[in-house]
């Protein structure tokens, strides 16, 4: 019994030593529901890509949608991360359960040992007593009331001894039950840990696929031009989205008051990292192709939080082709800020956000290989240089 408890205790200590951090805030049920919805959306996109690949091999390079392929990879990667986080949460809960069971096993083991000593002590006492000792005690009664008192005392002792035996048996049964429960929890933990390891391997595989595709776009002129033209279309869709939002506001006569236009040059940066790509026209060093970048890219320094640069209303928070996970905020006066390539969204459509509120986390989704934040400021749908709006850096 003691050997079993020691081995269980040692096992649990080992579990604690390798315990993963569990920071996922949503319930497992909510996560599973989201995963199912996103998987369905992914299946539709993968079907479209599959149909595309059935076309002639000669024209496939021109016909394939690079941004769609990147989005599928990004979504798979995001789902795997979410599933991994859910598994870590489950493992954490099972570790807590295992700890509780181990503690209870220790308590029950001590109770059984205590009961065993009481029973052994009583057995020794009975063995030492002469045969018929109880009858002699009764016959030695002075009178009838004394006889009744002694009978009651002996009855109480017998009941106490019986309760000790019943409790002893109950603790043995509980110990067996807790051992079975602990064994089951440990088995489930092993299964979840194996599943988690598989998700990690799959995540690495998806990341490698994206790296290969991004490198191909950078080295192949045809693919580069294809990706650039697709990004132009995606940027135009952002313009259409903003125009649609402004039209709806006019129809319902909704006015978002603000002082965004008076904040030029004073806005805090959405992330404290360094600029890796600037706004405006840029020429590819190898292909001699000119592109117009409508925003800036920021490589995060410490921490990957993304902050709202001004008060406003979230009007978009989802995947957007080419931009990856994207948040767009309406600041009134027909000004919008856009935050893309995110790894995680922390706001939803309709949320009112204050200046400096954390709205997401920097990632590498969309047409980005590394973890970078893509940031735009648009007025009446047209991009403006974000650096003229942000605080000057020393």
Task: Provide an overview of this structure.
A hairpin with a 6-residue loop joins strand 2 and strand 3 (290-293). The strands form two sheets. Strands 1, 4, 5, 6, 7, 8, 9, 10, 11 and 12 form a ten-stranded antiparallel sheet that branches. The protein has a two-stranded antiparallel sheet with strand order 2-3. It folds into two domains: 2-219; 256-388, Glucose Permease (Domain IIA), CATH 2.70.70. The radius of gyration is 35 Å and the shape is elongated. The model is unreliable at 1-25 and 56-62 (pLDDT under 50). The protein contains seven helices and twelve strands. The protein is α+β, with helices and mostly antiparallel strands and 394 residues long. The chain has helices at 2-17, 28-53, 57-63, 66-128, 133-139, 144-219, 221-251; strands at residues 274-277, 280-283, 290-293, 296-299, 305-307, 312-320, 324-330, 335-345, 352-353, 358-362, 373-379, 382-384. The two termini are 69 Å apart.
List the helices and strands and how they pair.
Layout: H1 2-17, H2 28-53, H3 57-63, H4 66-128, H5 133-139, H6 144-219, H7 221-251, E1 274-277, E2 280-283, E3 290-293, E4 296-299, E5 305-307, E6 312-320, E7 324-330, E8 335-345, E9 352-353, E10 358-362, E11 373-379, E12 382-384
Antiparallel strand pairs: 1-4, 2-3, 4-11, 5-10, 6-7, 6-9, 7-8, 8-10, 8-11, 11-12
SSE sequence, one letter per element: HHHHHHHEEEEEEEEEEEE
Radius of gyration: 35 Å
Arithmetic mean pLDDT: 78
Major beta sheet summary:
10 strands, antiparallel
The CA-CA distance between the termini, in Å, is 69 Å
Proportion of β residues? 15-25%
Query: Unreliable stretches, pLDDT < 50, 5 or more residues?
Result: 1-25, 56-62
Oligomeric form:
single chain
User: What is the global morphology?
Assistant: elongated
How many structurally independent domains? 2
What is the number of E strands?
12
* Distinct helical segment count: 7
Fraction of residues in helices?
55-70%
Q: Structural class given helices, strands, pairing?
A: alpha+beta
């Amino acid at each position: 019994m003691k050997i079993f408890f020691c081995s269980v205790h040692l096992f649990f200590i080992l579990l604690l030593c390798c315990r993963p951090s569990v920071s996922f805030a949503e319930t497992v049920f909510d996560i599973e529901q989201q995963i199912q919805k996103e998987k369905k959306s992914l299946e539709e996109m993968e079907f479209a890509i599959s149909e595309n690949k059935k076309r002639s091999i000669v024209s496939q390079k021109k016909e394939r949608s690079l941004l769609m392929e990147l989005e599928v990879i990004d979504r798979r990667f995001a789902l795997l991360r979410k599933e991994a986080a859910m598994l870590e949460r489950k493992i954490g809960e099972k570790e807590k359960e295992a700890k509780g069971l181990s503690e209870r096993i220790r308590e029950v083991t001590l109770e059984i040992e205590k009961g065993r000593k009481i029973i052994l002590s009583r057995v020794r006492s009975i063995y030492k007593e002469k045969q018929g000792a109880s009858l002699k005690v009764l016959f030695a009664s002075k009178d009838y009331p004394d006889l009744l008192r002694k009978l009651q005392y002996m009855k109480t002792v017998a009941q106490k001894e019986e309760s000790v035996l019943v409790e002893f048996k109950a603790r043995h049964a509980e110990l067996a039950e807790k051992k079975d429960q602990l064994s089951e929890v440990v088995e489930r933990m092993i299964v979840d840990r194996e599943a988690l390891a598989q998700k990690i391997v799959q995540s690495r595989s998806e990341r490698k696929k994206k790296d290969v595709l991004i490198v191909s776009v950078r080295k192949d002129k045809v693919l580069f031009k294809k990706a650039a033209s697709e990004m132009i279309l995606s940027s135009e869709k952002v313009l259409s989205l903003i125009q649609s939002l402004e039209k709806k506001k006019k129809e319902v006569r909704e006015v978002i008051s603000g002082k965004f236009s008076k904040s030029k040059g004073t806005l805090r940066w959405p992330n404290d990292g360094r600029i890796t790509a600037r706004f405006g026209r840029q020429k590819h060093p190898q292909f001699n192709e000119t592109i117009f970048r409508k925003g800036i890219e920021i490589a995060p320094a410490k921490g990957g939080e993304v902050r709202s640069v001004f008060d406003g209303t979230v009007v978009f928070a989802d995947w957007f082709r080419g931009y990856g996970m994207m948040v767009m905020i309406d600041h009134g006066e027909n000004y919008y800020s856009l935050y893309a390539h995110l790894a995680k969204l922390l706001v939803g459509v309709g949320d009112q956000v204050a200046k400096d509120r954390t709205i997401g986390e920097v990632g590498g989704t969309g047409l980005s290989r590394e973890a970078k934040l893509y940031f735009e400021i648009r007025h009446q749908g047209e991009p403006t240089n974000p650096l003229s709006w942000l605080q000057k850096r020393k």
